[in-house]
């Protein structure tokens, strides 16, 4: 597809990809216990900058809003803060089980790190203190989470969804069952340009090739809908794959990308309810994706996700991260 490969990718499957909010630097966390950072040049070429490690697989990574620090959540039950200028990493959070998600919250009157774990706890950290500012019990293990101030969404095992409001102090706002029948895999919050770009809802992906678009306060019942994706038609049977990641476009808030275990990515316009593009199929599942802050570069990571069991694992096929110029492909459909 003529997409540009990132130089020196991790040695094992990538769990999370994030572009810096301030400049074109890309980070990727992986099952190889490491997180790496690259500078992306204007021609799309990448320069490896630095990397850090944990003692277990890193399940999530995210940027500080100032663009100089990165947070990493690991199966070693720790979350670290990595200062890119000094290339030093310090532990800033701790759970009793692997930490699945980390999200930075930048509010007008406070800032903190939110971590979600398989110990069924959501914790909020000031990063300067070893103890959390706040710890919230979850009904089940945390599987996915997203933050767009003043909203946080957490998806748990047993198809739970909890919405939190973050003003003044995080507190539970609404609890619901997933509109999808199968396990939550990924969640991404979307904004509404008509409401001052405030977050109004989320897209939820499941293991069953389906995405739900949900508004927290829908104006009509028809606002919420689900659609099928990442499926392939064989003879007599339909192969159904997990939706591994969802990313919303930073400029056109109606546009989103989904990536799946079928080795394809798709671009969608949720307001027009149409698919804009589906990629060719890679020989590996796509496990993570993100857009840069201008929405001109789409990054996606290919690597084995064990969805077909150990017998389909081929150690010869190495993970890769690809960059795609997406300015021309991603434009909202005219109504």
Automatic annotation (TrEMBL):
<dbReference type="InterPro" id="IPR001680">
    <property type="entry name" value="WD40_rpt"/>
</dbReference>
<keyword id="KW-0131">Cell cycle</keyword>
<feature type="repeat" description="WD">
    <location>
        <begin position="92"/>
        <end position="135"/>
    </location>
</feature>
<dbReference type="GO" id="GO:0000972">
    <property type="term" value="P:transcription-dependent tethering of RNA polymerase II gene DNA at nuclear periphery"/>
</dbReference>
<dbReference type="Pfam" id="PF00400">
    <property type="entry name" value="WD40"/>
</dbReference>
<keyword id="KW-0498">Mitosis</keyword>
<keyword id="KW-0813">Transport</keyword>
<comment type="similarity">
    <text>Belongs to the WD repeat rae1 family.</text>
</comment>
<dbReference type="GO" id="GO:0051301">
    <property type="term" value="P:cell division"/>
</dbReference>
<dbReference type="InterPro" id="IPR015943">
    <property type="entry name" value="WD40/YVTN_repeat-like_dom_sf"/>
</dbReference>
<keyword id="KW-0853">WD repeat</keyword>
<dbReference type="InterPro" id="IPR036322">
    <property type="entry name" value="WD40_repeat_dom_sf"/>
</dbReference>
<dbReference type="GO" id="GO:0043130">
    <property type="term" value="F:ubiquitin binding"/>
</dbReference>
<feature type="repeat" description="WD">
    <location>
        <begin position="51"/>
        <end position="92"/>
    </location>
</feature>
<dbReference type="GO" id="GO:0005643">
    <property type="term" value="C:nuclear pore"/>
</dbReference>
<keyword id="KW-0539">Nucleus</keyword>
<keyword id="KW-0132">Cell division</keyword>
<dbReference type="InterPro" id="IPR019775">
    <property type="entry name" value="WD40_repeat_CS"/>
</dbReference>
<dbReference type="GO" id="GO:0005737">
    <property type="term" value="C:cytoplasm"/>
</dbReference>
<keyword id="KW-0677">Repeat</keyword>
<protein>
    <recommendedName>
        <fullName>mRNA export factor</fullName>
    </recommendedName>
</protein>
<dbReference type="GO" id="GO:0006405">
    <property type="term" value="P:RNA export from nucleus"/>
</dbReference>
<dbReference type="GO" id="GO:0003723">
    <property type="term" value="F:RNA binding"/>
</dbReference>
<keyword id="KW-0963">Cytoplasm</keyword>
């Amino acid at each position: 597809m003529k997409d540009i490969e990132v130089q020196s990718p991790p040695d094992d499957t990538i769990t999370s990809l994030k572009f810096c909010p301030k400049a074109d630097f890309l980070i990727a966390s992986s099952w190889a216990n490491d997180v790496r950072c690259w500078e992306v040049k204007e021609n799309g070429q990448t320069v490896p900058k630095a990397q850090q490690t944990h003692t277990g697989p890193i399940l999530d990574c995210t940027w500080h809003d100032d663009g100089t620090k990165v947070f990493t959540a690991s199966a070693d039950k720790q979350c670290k803060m990595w200062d890119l200028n000094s290339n030093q990493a310090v532990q800033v959070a701790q759970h009793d089980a692997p930490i699945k998600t980390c999200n930075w919250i930048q509010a007008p009157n406070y800032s903190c790190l939110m971590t979600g774990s398989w110990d069924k706890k959501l914790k909020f950290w000031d990063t300067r203190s070893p103890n959390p500012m706040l710890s919230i019990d979850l009904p089940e293990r945390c599987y996915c989470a997203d933050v767009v101030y003043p909203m946080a969404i957490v998806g748990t095992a047993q198809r739970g969804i909890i919405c939190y409001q973050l003003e003044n102090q995080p507190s539970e706002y609404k609890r619901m069952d997933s509109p999808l029948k199968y396990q939550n895999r990924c969640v991404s919050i979307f904004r509404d340009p008509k409401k001052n770009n405030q977050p109004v809802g989320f897209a939820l992906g499941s293991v069953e090739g389906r995405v739900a678009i949900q508004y927290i306060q829908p104006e009509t019942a028809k606002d919420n809908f689900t659609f099928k994706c990442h499926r392939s038609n064989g003879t007599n049977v339909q192969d159904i794959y997990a939706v591994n990641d969802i990313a919303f476009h930073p400029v056109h808030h109606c546009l989103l990308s989904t990536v799946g275990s079928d080795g394809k990515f798709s671009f969608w316009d949720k307001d027009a309810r149409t698919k804009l593009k589906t990629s060719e199929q890679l020989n590996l599942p796509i496990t993570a994706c993100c857009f840069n802050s201008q929405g001109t570069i789409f990054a996606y990571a290919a690597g084995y996700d064990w969805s077909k069991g150990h017998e389909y694992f081929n150690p010869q096929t190495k993970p890769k991260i690809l960059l795609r110029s997406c300015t021309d492909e991603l434009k909202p459909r005219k109504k």
